[in-house]
Amino acid sequence: xxSFDFAPMHRSTVxxxxxxxxxxxxxxxxxxxxxxxxxxxxxxxxxxxxxxIAVAGFSEADLSVEVKENSLVVTARKAADEAEGTYxxxxxxTRAFERRFHLAEHMVVTGASHADGMLHxxxxxxxxxxxxxxxxxxxxxxxxxxxxxxxxxxx
Length: 155
Hints:
Blueprint: H1 7-12, H2 17-28, E1 39-45, E2 48-54, E3 63-68, E4 71-76, E5 97-102, E6 107-115, E7 118-125, H3 141-154
């Protein structure tokens, strides 16, 4: 496996330490990622996303969606079937699972719905007003001189 050196990136960027750490974690992860259950991540608007997970065989009571710190955790535990029959072939997997998604800062889960064997989780990025770009007014030279004169007059 190749290892990447992120030192050049640290020299020319400021405040991207979390991205470099995330890349290190992803690239150094030797453990294979689970493929069950299958899922899609789609961008529905400029700041809106939807995660769709195939959960055939699970009811709403069997599913749990939680946000812990910056992680979205989806778990499913199938209640034991009381009248479990004899299967000649059992191709629909109803085994328990836990799927984690690392969320970026300011991502908010706005809702979840379960229909037709799919669990849809809606996410939205809500950037606080303090972090949104704002235009800074540039003062002219006359305004600067006036402030200096006012300061001298007060002293």
